[in-house]
Amino acid sequence: MQYLEFEKPLADIEGKAEELRAMAKTSPGMDVSKEAEALDRKAETALRDLYKGLTPWQKCQVARHPDRPHCQDYIEALFTEFTQLAGDRAFADDHAVMGGLGRFNDQPVMIIGHEKGNDTKSRIKRNFGMARPEGYRKAIRLMDMADRFRLPVITLIDTAGAYPGKGAEERGQAEAIARSTEKCLTIGVPLISVVIGEGGSGGAVAFASANRVAMLEHSVYSVISPEGCASILWKDSEKMREAAEALRLTAQDLQKLGIIDRIVTEPLGGAQRAPKEAIAAVGKAIEAMLAELGKMKPEALIKDRRQKFIEMGSKGLAA
């Protein structure tokens, strides 16, 4: 288990409990159960206190935790008969974007999501979840297919943003993001998005212009990263804490502003501490959102989606 910077007090307590148990294993006659249990209770209290009042910057750190379940984990746990579809039929297959056909509660659906990878090799292959133009064009192709066969689309958002490299810009990164966002707004099937980690900039909006948007409790969703915002506004990336506060990027703030529709509660200590519980909670949220949209006609779905985004500005000003 990797500990975040603000979790150091917790790491010390849990570390002591582990040391006691390790000593007991090497000395069978030593009984440390009471001391270890007392430390466990102390650790749980410390964990509860830490996560009760996380700052926006601390939520950013939790959202980026490498042990949080990623897109592939959700697909393997929640969807059956998943068949991955590759390529944009124009340039290449972007491994930062996973997509394909599957069944959710035996209902055929299209799944699209950002995949960051879980070790050095897979993170490099997945480009740390930062999609290139071909990733967005693949998503457009899959959304077109879903629209043609009347399949709901479920997107899982977890990206720091679109890849800003020279090659991506040369191949039309901005245009691809805009086309993907446009496609989200025009398909006549239910579109549901869940921010499972980071929702960064246009790279996230290109998949999240949906009828219903949910966020995990400790995920973040913003127009720019706190570090990028601090570099622009204060010319100092170290002011990321102030930037995180100003961006109002937490699920709680965004629900108040009307940007998202639902917050999915995470296990105590974040999704990284109990991945199976977090994945199950997301599954229940998807099920509920699909039920809300299941009986709507294509024209009503498109109107609902467009109206949702038109109203965002007025709700934000009122807040």
Keywords:
single chain; alpha/beta; 2-enoyl-CoA Hydratase, Chain A, domain 1; 2 domains; 8-stranded mixed β-sheet; 15 helices
Please characterize this protein's 3D structure.
52% of the residues lie in helices and 15% in strands. The chain is α/β, with parallel strands linked by helices and 319 residues long. Strands 1, 2, 3, 4, 5, 6, 7 and 8 form an eight-stranded mixed beta sheet that branches. α1 packs antiparallel against α2 (33-52) and α6 (133-148) packs parallel to α8. The model has no long low-confidence stretch (mean pLDDT 91).
Rounded mean pLDDT is 91
Per DSSP, what share of the residues sits in E-state strands of 2 or more residues? 15-25%
SS-derived structural category: alpha/beta
Count of alpha/pi helices? 15
| Extended strand count | 8
Tell me the count of domains: 2
- Head-to-tail CA distance between termini: 38 Å
Please summarize what this structure is.
By secondary structure, the chain is α/β, with parallel strands linked by helices. It is 52% helix and 15% strand.
Give the SSE map.
Elements: H1 8-26, H2 33-52, H3 56-63, H4 71-78, E1 80-84, E2 97-104, E3 107-114, H5 120-125, H6 133-148, E4 153-159, H7 166-170, H8 173-186, E5 191-200, H9 201-208, E6 212-216, E7 220-222, H10 226-233, H11 240-247, H12 251-256, E8 262-264, H13 275-293, H14 298-310, H15 312-318
Parallel strand pairs: 3-4, 4-5, 5-6, 5-7, 6-8
Antiparallel strand pairs: 1-2, 2-3
